[in-house]
Amino acid sequence: MESKKLFDKLLEESNPRKSYAMLEAMILRVLGEYLSSQGKELITNHIINSKDGLIDEFDAYAPEGFDSYVGGTIIEIKLYKNKNSLIKMFRDKMIERIVNRFINSPLKIKNIIFIISLEISNEDKIELTRDFSNRFQTVNIHIWDLNDLGTIFNMFPKIVLDTYENISELLLNTTISDSVQKNSSDWLIKRKDHIKTLKNKFYDDDLVLFLGAGVSMAAKIPTWDDLVSDLLVSLISNKLENYNVSLSEEEKEIIVSYLKQFNGNSPLLLARYIRSGLQDEFIELLTKILYRNCVNSSDVLKEISQLCQPIRNGIGIQGVVTYNFDDLIEYNFKQYRIKHKSIYREADIPSSDELGIYHVHGFLPRSPVDYDNLSKGLLVFSEEGYHNLMLDPYNWSNLIQLTYLKEHTCLMIGLSITDPNLRRLLDIAMRKQEDAVCRHYVILRRESFFTKAQNSNNQNINYESIKKFDMANQDLQEEYYKELGLNVIWVESYEEIPSLLQQIRE
After folding, report:
1. Is residue 455 pLDDT above 70, yes or no?
2. Confidence of residue 368 (pLDDT cuts 50, 70, 90)
3. HSE of 122, CA atoms in CB hemisphere, 13 A
4. How far is 243 from 443, CA to CA, in rounded Å?
5. In the predicted model, is pLDDT for residue 198 greater than 90?
6. Distance between CA 15 and CA 85 in Å, rounded?
7. Burial class (CB in 10 A: 0-12, 13-18, 19+), 79
8. Pairing of strands 409-413, 207-211
9. d(CA 147, CA 452)
10. How open is the CA angle 61-65-70, to the nearest 5 degrees?
11. Which 8-state DSSP code applies to residue 281?
12. Is-contact 38 66, C-beta < 8 A?
């Protein structure tokens, strides 16, 4: 296949991150052959520990160089849709930070080659690198475009075709191969790097918080499953009392379990059934169950509140998007005297000195009299609510989420990313980007099969193999989330989250 057509094919993928991954895998595969033909080594996805205790990761590193590039040569692949995006990358601090990171690494770097997914003139290449060439005397900076790649690709037509036809398998094999080479503690170093980036975004007034059920659980707000179960019990009890039928708690639990099986174990379907059955009593009963055991605050809510306090000469957090019905964020903000405004309908707009708390799935405060027109706000509790959101792209809730996802860096806390509408919005935001950079972050708990295997005390288990499986499984999950534009910050316990939030503001 002609190299130009091949590049077009790879770049036409609707998801930029997936397109980037495929193109990168293809380039590294062919470059490996190219350097091998010269008797030179190319180390792909090279990882080293930097001087500040973080991880430096390079797309590729040629220790001895190649062609006319003498000495250690770093190769970085950057996917951009247009020339303006490329120019912006070189004009802002992004390239400068990358170059500084490479120069300060323990490697002896003589050349840095940026491979881009565009065709540009030699004059443009000279213009873009001139400023850096003047400032960084110890390293030579070069740009390769698609024409430069095409020249090399045309030397290996069989390898190019074979790689293209098996690109998905290559991506999988690369991920597994890289994970096997890692140390079991590398995820902790990467987490430290992510927190450092979030800290920079925070002080650049570019950070938005997306909060899910996990944030409220620590304050004893019921989980979704518990909430649905409680409502089911109430629905059944209320209806049966009309016929003088009294059920014991054990009998109620049996009926609830049967109902779950009958409805296919779908919480959304059950919620639809409940809302229809309770009718006018639904909101009042839902609110009552929501706050029944609530303790108002927790360590994570306190740290979120401290993070949301305005910083000197800046804002810090741009906004808070919450998928929870409760008013725990409002309660804690009041304790810290943070000026805020609860947003639960289209007409609500925070003032310049108020931090907006966007209840994008609805709001059920304990004191409804303190809020105007609550009944006009949406409440996404059941299946039809999700359908309405997904079918209405101009709903204010969707627009708020999409605006933040497109224009800022978002940190997701207490979210499992299983919400189909959120995944859809993440996918849209990623497709709208002009590059393939993962801008957002999600905190997730990592599953350690190694720890579970150790606890089993099974003498027939090869623990090192399970440890490698853990790392491969984790890397594959990270690749999935990257397609949604998300970097994963792993924790072994949710109790670690307050400390991580504290580090962002420190």
Report:
1. no
2. confident
3. 1
4. 49
5. yes
6. 17
7. buried
8. parallel
9. 51
10. 140
11. G
12. yes
